[in-house]
Amino acid sequence: MIIASECTNKTDEQIVALTLKNQEYYLYIMKRYEAKLLNYILKISNISREDGEDILQEVFIKAYQNLNDFDLNFKFSNWIYSIAHNITISAYRKKTVRPQTTSWEDKDLNSILESTIDVENINLQKLTYNKILTIINQLSLKYKDVLILKFVEGKDYREISDILHKPMGTIATLINRAKKYLKQELKKEGITFYNDKKYKQ
Question: Which pTM does this prediction carry?
């Protein structure tokens, strides 16, 4: 019988090592990542929550099946995010139905906006929130993915490089282009950010 508290202060890599000896430890990997990965899956794909949960289960299954191939010298979070990314993109491209609009928490939306417009304390009105969300959801996958990984998931360039299997220079270029495009689209919609760093519509 595994006591949950014994995993609390262990790193992901330590729990992976334990899982390779006792599969019951994998439950704690799942508990640690289920909310974060589901949030990531829904944001990059705009699919329904039900479909997102199906993808999440597929991610955990594939990660477990390939756990023996994981190098304990590397960062587990990058490895499992990479699996989540690949499975989600594959599922998204197979979808023939119109994707749904996924709701975002204000703090996540603010993180992307602050990185793009260089403002603080954005007060989002409902109409404006919906406009901005529509613009972000309409970004191409390659742009939306890097923005979410960088400014919502808090990954650095090297981590994003590991997750997407792209050079860091390419990641930097994608992020800069995504921010530039987002800023242009916000202006087209008449969304303006003033010098007093307070949002107005």
Answer: 0.78
Query: pLDDT per residue over 143-177, tens digit each?
Result: 989 989 988 888 999 999 999 999 999 999 999 99
Q: What are residue 156's phi and psi, to 5 degrees?
A: -90, 175
> Cα 47 from chain centroid?
14
Residue 148: both structure tokens together: 């979410």
**Which of 54, 79, 103 corresponds to the end of one domain?**
103
- DSSP letters, 31-91, are HHHHHHHHHHHHHHH---HHHHHHHHHHHHHHHHHTGGG--TTS-HHHHHHHHHHHHHHHH
The 3-state DSSP class for residue 9 equals coil
The pLDDT, as a whole number, for residue 194 is 44
Amino acid at 162: D
Single out the residue of 9, 78, 71 nearest to residue 37, CA to CA.
78
pLDDT in tens, 184-197: 887 787 766 544 34
And the tokens for 168?
Answer: 């860091």
Which amino acid makes up residue 46? N
Range of the structural domain that residue 5 is part of? 1-103
